[in-house]
Amino acid sequence: MSHTAFSVLLSVYSKEKETYLIDSLNSIINQTLPPNEIILVKDGPLPDKLNDIINSFQTHYPILKVISLKQNQGLGKALNEGIKHCNYNLIARMDTDDIAKPERFEKQIKFFETHPYIDVCSAWIEEFENDTNNIVSIKKLPENHHEILKYAKYRCPINHPVVMYKKEIVLKAGGYQGFPEDYRLWVKLIMNGAKFYNIQESLLYFRFSRNMIKRRGGWKYAITDIQSQIDFYKLGLFGLSTLIYNIFIRTTIRLIPNQIRHFIYQKILRK
Q1: What is the largest CA-CA distance in the chain?
Q2: What is the DSSP letter of 254?
Q3: Rounded to 5 degrees, what angle do the CA atoms 119, 179, 161 make?
Q4: What letter does residue 103 receive in the DSSP assignment?
Q5: Are 199 and 164 in contact (CB under 8 A)?
Q6: How many helices (H) and strands (E) does the chain have?
Q7: Which of 20, 67, 158, 224 could be bridged to 122 by S-S, CB 3.0 to 4.6 A?
Q8: Strand, coil or helix: what is 203?
Q9: Could you give the 3-state DSSP secondary structure of residue 201?
């Protein structure tokens, strides 16, 4: 039975672990509904072991197409380059250290086919440490467009590693720009009138680490966060009172001790 053709877009850089990349690519290949193409961007030079893995997958799976950047550009710029090489309007995002559940693409494609007015479709994710049997939390997000718009005023409304979106609307919004790349993109799409939906089940295993929480602290991250909130205010996402509230809450979270921030992420901001 025919289905809507789609691309999968990933970016890999030099510090990725070989086993993570293998697990991620295998989870894409072994879907109940495989993609028509996989676009993998090499974000700068890679170690030989990573290159060997990629070459092996290319040999066995011709749908894997590799784009090489001479220097590391960062995730946003790498994805922008990858989008240019996607031959299909529907693009599924994946990270090279995450694992897609077997029916992920089938469920998202079916949703797009029955809801053609939707531009962005994501889902919940299960965050795990070391092994997918060790789930530490589930990142749940609101379902319908109006709920997502309300949620977006305070927090990122889409799980980027499991999102599927229409290429045309992302290009129209200017692609990934600034930091945080994904949240900024969703805000631009919202302001451009794009329609969103979150499937109410987990379709991906997200590799969690305590270092991730640690990296999200400190003054540097706080200042970047403040700037992004100011930009969202200027775009018209929310008013002045929400801007002040968001800056206070977000700055506090960035500057508290790591252990407390970890508790907030895992026990309050997750289910």
Answers
A1: 56
A2: H
A3: 45
A4: T
A5: no
A6: 11, 9
A7: 158
A8: strand
A9: strand
CA distance 54 to 88: 22
Residue located via tokens 């009172």: 241
Half-sphere exposure of 252 (CA within 13 A, CB side): 8
Give me the residue label for tokens 């995002």: 93
Residues 123-179: tens digit of each pLDDT = 999 999 989 999 989 999 999 999 999 999 999 999 999 999 999 999 999 999 988
CB 175 within 8 A of CB 166: no
Predicted confidence (pLDDT) per residue in 188-209, tens digit: 999 999 999 999 999 999 998 7
> What is the SS3 assignment for 142-196?
CCCHHHHHHHHCCCCCCCHHHCEEEHHHHHHCCCCCCCCHHHHHHHHHHHCCCCE
- Token readout for 72 is 């590391």
Euclidean distance between CA atoms 165 and 140, whole angstroms: 19
Query: Tokens 């510090």, residue?
Result: 15
CA distance 195 to 125: 20
Q: Is 38 in contact with 64 (CB distance < 8 Å)?
A: yes
Find where tokens 């045309």 sit.
168
Polymer length of the chain = 271
